[in-house]
Design goal:
The complex is a heterodimer of chains A (467) and B (306). Chain A is α+β, with helices and mostly antiparallel strands and 467 residues long. Chain A folds into two domains: 60 residues; 351 residues, Porin (Beta Barrel). Chain A is 18% helix and 44% strand. Chain A has five helices and 18 strands. In chain A, the strands form two sheets. In chain A, strands 1-2-3-4-5-6-7-8-9-10-11-14-15-16-17-18 form a 16-stranded antiparallel beta barrel. A two-stranded antiparallel ribbon of chain A has the order 12-13. In chain A, β10 and β11 form a beta hairpin. In chain A, α1 packs antiparallel against α3. Chain A is elongated. With 306 residues, chain B is of the alpha/beta class. Chain B has two domains: 164 residues, 3-Layer(aba) Sandwich (Rossmann fold), CATH 3.40.50.1980; 113 residues, Rossmann fold. Chain B has a four-stranded parallel sheet with strand order 2-1-3-4, with helices on one face. Chain B has a four-stranded parallel sheet with strand order 6-5-7-8, sandwiched between helices. In chain B, α7 links the parallel β5 and β6. In chain B, α2 crosses α6. Chain B starts with a helix and ends with a helix. Classes of the chains: A alpha+beta (467), B alpha/beta (306).
């Protein structure tokens, strides 16, 4: 463009010079009209005039193009975004991370531990608490799917969850189906690595059987009001420790509706102040047939979240309690307060192998729960304490040990006192030290020390349920 | 008794189903900067609720269930974008059961739409810290880019509520005129910052530095989102000495003691700024916040004798 401008300028100068020459030399020209030099100059002048008009035409054309482009840029800058066609596809409305439908979000959690304790299975041992592959992706505009495949030192690999969740149902409804952790209490549906402790509270382990793993369907409704109220209802083959259990009676190997486990869980939340809030939830699940099982639970979580840059960053206090009324089959004998077995037939000697004196079915009422707090310091530290109380079904008691150890009717009650401290070198890595004092009545106290090292590979998102 | 119960039920159902008489546009804003811009542009036509507060670290905003219901009932959500809200907004949106405000949909208003991002990582390698794959998301600290944010917000409001397009266009014109006037003032105010060398706590001042000619030579954090180490601090202090860097910029959500210590060790001054509107005392909106940040920086530079 610049070269062309210079050339035009040069030629314009030449033309002007020639014109001036022509003016001053006009009489001479007249006198020497046939001079070869003048004829040459005339020819050059004509050629230059031709080039000049051509350049002018080109310049004018270029100016028109530039003006048109400028007009288009102005129009683009001031125009509203293109309206969507066919109800959705139009100009982008957001700058989003690229998503590849062939590659769902994949993460892998490595959760390892070094543990030692003083009694029971005393000694030192390394373990893989969890090696968990988590995959999730939207499936279509209506459903997303996720799966979690977990391997541990004790249990090998297993599909912990494989579920579909609706994303576009009306009336604030969400349906989840497949195998998943049902919405029981606060921590039952958390994966191990998301817990604020190195272990799941023992009361949840003993009353529910670890995670609330279920196969079934769950419907969740968010009340369309300003205040947070969510109600979840579900029906499953079983929840937690009953999962995979043989049905009491079956039709072609399946349960009847009354043998399924039914759940309801309401939740609500209050902002007490700008920095203090409380969340309250209740859980009921049960098997209607012959009242095989009824579990009631309540959980309360209070959070202080000042959101400051001070060293103290906040505290979470949580408490959860469960009452379980359950039928157990093939019951072992119970024991009186003196530790003597309460036998079906006292005339026959009690022997665990030849005469176990099984009572048959029996109902047992148990309860348990935990309370904990965790305070957050700086941007990377937290520390807390936990108390847990749990009762086990009598089947949990090692019958053999009852012959060698002093018998006690309270042998299945355990209190656990824990203290834990957590350090996060980054958002994707965590170190945690936990000390447990385990007091089981009728047994020696056990002290346990666990050092946990957890890391998150790949996609990492923060879920609402594990807030 | 039955009649009383029925009446009570009716009242409750009416309360649940009742909609506000005036059809204001209910907007949930992820951060205070975009909330203020939305109010300025939408005026009386919008009702804005903000999730994060000015003094908070935008990477660590609590996920409160009360925001789920607000998002559930929202007509639009306004985000700053480029992944700045990744620790809390996706989790809230996932359970809010409001398809229109999901990312990419009509009522998801992304203020980053017209911003040219800086520091877009060429690879997503976590050895480099907690990187934002779409680029540094703290562009709100540059008021010229603030104009681009305002334009994206106004267009988003118009898209969601075309009946009041004129309101949003007028609001945008007024707001852009205000920003233009302030930008001219700030150019003069910030003149002493040109060429000043500084360190910041987090890697969030690149847009501000780019606009006003501040030369950033490092961060107190080892890498984005990674806490500092003694070795890194030693290197940083040595580098500050070599480059004669005296300005330590602490974002209000970050640790005061460490910034003070570094300033003391290097004979420098600490300037406290906020990466979000309303983070500094006495500030409320976006314009206030930009001005307070620049004044804090200029004041620290003046105290350094620069």
């Amino acid at each position: 463009m610049h070269r062309r401008t210079h050339r035009v300028a040069r030629r314009a100068g030449l033309v002007a010079g020639l014109a001036a020459c022509a003016c001053f030399t006009a009489p001479v020209e007249t006198r020497a009209a046939d001079s070869p030099e003048v004829a040459k100059l005339k020819t050059e002048l004509t050629a230059t005039q031709g080039e000049l008009s051509q350049t002018r035409a080109e310049l004018s054309k270029t100016q028109e193009t530039v003006a048109a482009l400028a007009k288009r840029v102005d129009a683009m800058a001031s125009a509203p975004p293109q309206t969507a066609s066919y109800g959705g596809a139009g100009a982008p409305t957001a700058r989003l991370s690229p998503v590849n439908a062939d590659n769902p979000a994949i993460s892998f959690v490595v959760d390892t531990a070094l543990q030692t304790n003083t009694h029971g299975d005393g000694g030192v041992g390394f373990s893989l608490l969890s090696g968990e592959l988590f995959i999730s992706a939207p499936i279509d505009p209506f459903v997303r799917g996720y799966a979690s495949i977990n391997g541990t030192s004790d249990e090998g690999f297993d599909v912990e969850e494989a579920a579909l969740v609706t994303t576009a149902l009306p009336w604030n409804l969400t349906v989840k189906g497949g195998r998943f952790f049902s919405d029981v209490g606060r921590f039952s549906h958390w994966h191990n690595e998301a817990l604020p402790f190195v272990d799941r509270p023992p009361s949840i382990d003993r009353l529910i059987g670890g995670e609330s793993r279920s196969e079934g369907v769950e419907l969740s409704w968010l009340a369309p009001i300003e205040h947070f109220v969510q109600i979840t209802g579900g029906v499953y083959n079983s929840i937690g420790e009953q999962e995979g259990a043989e049905p009491v009676s079956s039709v072609f190997g399946r349960r009847s509706f009354s043998e399924l486990t039914w759940l309801i869980r309401p939740q609500t939340y209050f902002d007490l102040t700008d920095t203090l809030n409380v969340e309250v939830g209740g859980t009921y699940f049960g098997v209607p047939q012959r009242r095989d099982r009824n579990l009631y639970g309540v959980d309360v979580t209070v959070r202080h979240q000042p959101g400051t840059s001070e060293f103290y960053q906040g505290t979470t206090f949580g408490v959860e309690w469960m009452w379980n009324d359950e039928k157990f089959t093939d019951q072992r004998p119970r024991f009186d307060t003196a530790g003597a077995p309460l036998l079906v037939d006292p005339s026959v000697a009690f022997d665990p192998s030849s005469n176990p004196q099984v009572f048959g079915d029996g109902r047992f009422y148990r309860q348990g729960g935990y309370a904990y707090f965790e305070s957050f310091f700086g941007r990377r530290f937290s520390a807390g304490m936990r108390f847990d109380y749990s009762e086990a079904p009598s089947d949990d008691v090692d019958v053999e040990s009852l012959y060698t150890a002093p018998l006690s009717p309270n042998a299945d009650r355990i209190r656990t006192y824990s203290a834990f401290v957590t350090y996060l070198p980054s958002e994707f890595q965590r170190l945690r030290l936990q000390l447990d004092q385990i007091v089981a009545q009728g047994q020696k106290n056990d002290q346990r020390v666990t050092l946990q090292w957890t890391a998150f590979l790949g996609s990492h998102s923060h879920g609402f349920s594990t807030r | 008794m039955a009649f009383r119960l029925a009446s009570l039920c009716l009242v409750l159902v009416s309360a649940i189903l009742a909609q506000p008489a005036a059809a204001l546009l209910r907007v949930v804003a992820s951060l205070p900067d975009v909330a203020d811009m939305t109010r300025q542009i939408g005026g009386d036509q919008v009702e804005v609720v903000t999730i994060a507060e000015g003094g908070q670290d935008p990477h660590k905003v609590p996920v409160k269930p009360s925001f789920v219901t607000k998002l559930n009932r929202a007509d639009a959500v306004v985000v700053q974008g480029l992944g700045l809200e990744h620790t809390y907004l996706p989790a809230l949106l996932e359970v809010a059961r409001n398809d229109a405000i999901m990312p990419g949909n009509r009522a998801y208003i992304d203020a980053s739409l017209y911003v040219d991002p800086l520091e877009v990582p060429s690879s997503q390698n976590r050895t480099q810290g907690e990187l934002h794959p779409l680029g540094n998301p703290h562009f709100n600290l540059d008021p010229v880019r603030g104009k681009q944010m305002a334009r994206a917000i106004a267009e988003g409001l118009e898209r969601v509520d075309p009946d009041h397009a004129a309101t949003y266009r007028d609001g945008l014109s007024r707001y852009l005129a205000l920003l233009d006037r302030k930008i001219a003032e700030w150019e003069k105010l910030a003149a002493p910052l040109r060429g000043v060398k500084a360190v910041s706590y987090h890697q969030d001042l690149i847009y501000l530095a780019d606009r006003y000619g501040i030369e950033l030579i490092g961060t107190i954090e080892d890498k984005p989102g990674i806490p500092t180490t003694p070795g890194h601090l030693q290197d940083l202090i040595a580098r500050m000495g070599e480059t004669n860097t005296k300005l330590v910029i602490r974002e209000v959500a970050y640790d005061q003691a460490l910034a003070d210590t570094i300033a003391e060790r290097t004979g420098g001054r600490v300037a406290v700024v906020s990466s979000l509107a309303g983070g500094l005392p006495g500030t409320q909106g976006y314009v206030d916040s930009i001005e307070a940040n620049l004044k804090a920086l200029v004041s620290a530079v003046a105290a350094m004798g620069g």
